[in-house]
Write a structure and sequence with these properties.
By secondary structure, this protein is of the alpha/beta class. The protein has two domains: about 10-210, no CATH class; about 230-560, Alkaline Phosphatase, subunit A. It contains 22 helices and 21 strands. It has an eight-stranded mixed beta sheet, with helices on both faces. A five-stranded antiparallel beta sheet has the order 15-16-17-18-19. α3 packs antiparallel against α6. The radius of gyration is 28 Å and the shape is globular. The N and C termini lie far apart (about 75 Å). Bound molecules: (2R)-2,3-dihydroxypropyl phosphate and manganese (II) ion (MN). Manganese (II) ion binds next to α13.
Length: about 625
């Protein structure tokens, strides 16, 4: 490149000024949590990269005036975007999303309070814009560039390389940042506000385009399937046993069923949950599976409250938070329940703030409803014991009956716990994850025990039923070696892997007296119909894929998101059909000459076909947002 005079191109100056401003805003005006120096670094570089990406486009304009105009207006529009996000953030502790932009009520509220949400120093946001504006008008001579073609291509290549570098760092810091998409704050933190908006627009255009052609004519077929294959007319003896009782639902983070009635280093892992197994007021399901996909906790919430399946990829909470649902909180609201979620984490995590509105929740007690200090927090935040303790006052103040969902946090990967909180010692294997899992599971067990006591002490126990569910696995396949050592097995086979997807499920009904262990195959999909039945709510028009757990006439299988399943007789996984009770291989697809052989007499095939049909129908409902065409109140 030949430059006649030394020039400082405006697009570079603008990049530095605007980038610096954006960084200051991220760092000091949004409260973005930074956990390590890598995150600090990414947050520092991404504003400059984003700014360069836009301003460098200017080199393609031939006319000086056009170049300057482009830079001026880009800086102005960028600043307006920052400002609106800032105002929105001050009100919702979240970043603007496309659907929120079109949600009149949200924006209406904001419009009214925009002045109160603006701080005097916000005016400083315009300083760099004014300066860029000034330079672009007065110093055109030195500021414009007139690159030959290869110079322009160089600027473009540079932009793309920087962007790729940014994405690479982000992916390293947060694997599956985009496919799992768990939190807007993470996305903004890693790729910046502007790239986040582009991502958000792309996501919602995709979601919209999938639902825009749906017109509800798929519904009769789906309803017919549910009528013939899923629902049952059988009366349940348990119908209405908990009528008008409060429902306290505990989603126990990462607690798997293998810890129940099991020991580590000779010590019981979950003495309290074990005592519930024997308790006469408790129904314990010992063949109960989680059915989550990539959306982890949020998927488990979705399955259990809708009795629909999560999605094959991504988290449905994130991608379809604006759909219409006929969820448990909504149905309970109609019956006069006050519905809420209590979870001491940031509200935008898993897009919960939006999704909980769509599910019909009255209130979400998030991070800010709790007092978290350095002493009472660990890992992901507030520890489970103070979490339950601080929640009691909210339960006391609630209108009765209430439905309250508690989501615990301490037993989350990487299973951190301080020595003081540790009642049992870690296991000893090559996996620190598995080793540390046991003491944190025990901590959660103790937290739940204390919570039972607090409910009793505060007069909340007698009128409530308490449900405890493990949300999903805590120990992934990568720890199979350590797991086989712990379980005393030679290896973890695909059959064992499916059995390890069992999570504990308890229904505790004070003064019931008939509690027992129930061993039918059950899963999170069954919770909604079961709970409605216990509360004496019929919801006859509901469209859902689960069964009531206290009747005999059931589907008899639990489908997993990938098409595997566990039925009363079989487990189907990895192209193999197993006897569920013995683990014996009944049929295996053999691959010969790269062609799968025709399977003969595979006893698993029949249910497999039905599982796939069912998953497809559930996906049709979610992708097509089909419930907008259903009137669930119709008699
Ligand atoms: C986050 C908590 C954990 O709020 O629910 O989510 P997970 O990583 O288990 O899905
Ligand atoms: Mn979880």
């Amino acid at each position: 490149m030949n430059f006649k005079k030394t020039k400082i191109p405006l697009y570079i100056v603008a990049t530095l000024l605007f980038g610096l401003k954006t960084y200051i805003v991220y760092r000091f005006l949004f409260s973005i949590e930074l956990e390590n120096s890598m995150q600090e670094f990414i947050l520092f570089v991404n504003p400059f990269i984003s700014a360069f990406l836009v301003f460098a486009i200017s080199v393609w304009f031939k006319k000086e005036a056009r170049q300057m105009k482009f830079i001026r207006y880009s800086a102005l529009i960028g600043t307006i975007i920052i400002y609106f996000n800032l105002v929105f953030y001050r009100s919702f502790t979240d970043f603007i999303t496309v659907p929120q932009l079109f949600q009149a009520s949200n924006m209406g509220d904001l419009g009214g309070s925009i002045l109160t949400l603006t701080k005097p120093y916000d005016i400083l946001l315009i300083v760099d814009v004014l300066f860029i504006w000034y330079l672009s008008r007065k110093k055109t001579e030195v500021m414009t560039v007139n690159y030959p073609r290869n110079g322009k291509v160089f600027a473009l290549a540079m932009s793309l390389m920087l962007l790729a570098g940014n994405f690479f760092l982000a992916e390293m810091e947060r694997p599956q940042l985009f496919t799992r998409a768990f939190d807007r704050e993470y996305i903004v933190k890693n790729i910046g506000l502007f790239n986040y908006h582009i991502y958000d627009i792309a996501l919602h255009s995709k979601v919209k385009s999938q639902s825009v052609f749906a017109d509800g004519n798929e519904l009769p077929e789906i309803k017919n399937f549910i009528k013939t294959e899923v629902k049952s007319e059988e009366k349940s003896e348990m119908f209405a046993v908990a009528k008008d009782k409060n429902v306290i639902f505990i989603s126990a983070e990462s607690v798997q069923n293998f810890v129940i009635n099991n020991k580590v280093n000779g010590e019981e892992i979950t003495p309290f949950l074990n005592s519930l197994v024997k308790d006469e007021d408790t129904y314990y399901f010992d063949n109960f599976y989680h059915q989550t996909g990539q959306g982890k906790t949020s998927d488990s919430e979705f399955v259990m409250e809708n009795s629909l399946y999560p999605l094959p990829s991504g988290a449905v909470f994130f991608t379809h938070g604006q759909n219409e649902y006929n969820a448990l909180p909504k149905l309970l609201n109609q019956e006069g329940y006050y519905t809420s979620v209590l979870h001491a984490n940031n509200k935008s995590f898993w897009n919960r703030d939006q999704m909980y509105d769509s599910l019909g929740y009255d209130h979400f007690y998030g991070e800010e409803a709790y007092e978290a200090t350095e002493e009472n927090s660990i890992g992901w935040g507030l520890k489970d014991k103070p979490f339950f303790e601080q929640s009691i006052k909210y339960l006391q103040a609630m209108d009765k009956p209430f439905y309250s969902k508690f989501i615990t946090l301490t037993n989350h990967f990487p299973f951190d716990i301080s020595k003081d909180d540790r009642s049992i010692e870690p296991y000893n294997s090559n996996s620190n994850t598995l080793n540390n899992y046991f003491p944190t599971v025990r901590y959660t067990d103790e937290a739940i025990e204390k919570f039972f006591q607090q409910l009793k002490d505060n007069g909340l126990y007698e009128d409530s039923i308490i449900i405890i569910m493990g949300d999903h696995y805590g120990i992934s396949e990568s720890h199979n070696k350590a797991m086989s050592q712990y379980l005393g097995k030679e290896e973890i086979t695909p059959y064992d892997h499916i059995q390890l997807q069992e999570v504990p499920f308890f229904i505790h009904i004070p003064n019931n007296g008939n509690g027992k262990t129930m061993s039918q195959v059950a899963g999170q999909i069954d919770i909604k119909p079961t709970l409605l039945s216990l509360l004496g709510i019929k919801a006859e028009n509901d469209i859902q894929f689960g069964n009531r757990l206290f009747i005999e006439d059931r589907k008899g299988y639990i489908a997993f998101r990938n098409g595997d399943y566990a039925s009363e007789k079989y487990i189907s996984t990895n192209d193999t059909c197993y006897n569920r009770l013995t683990g014996e291989v009944l049929s295996q697809a053999e691959e010969q000459d790269d062609e799968p052989s025709v399977e003969q007499d595979n006893p698993c095939t029949e249910i497999s076909d039905q599982v796939n049909e069912e998953l497809q129908y559930s996906d049709d409902i979610v992708y097509g947002d089909l419930f907008r065409f259903v009137n669930f109140d119709e008699k």
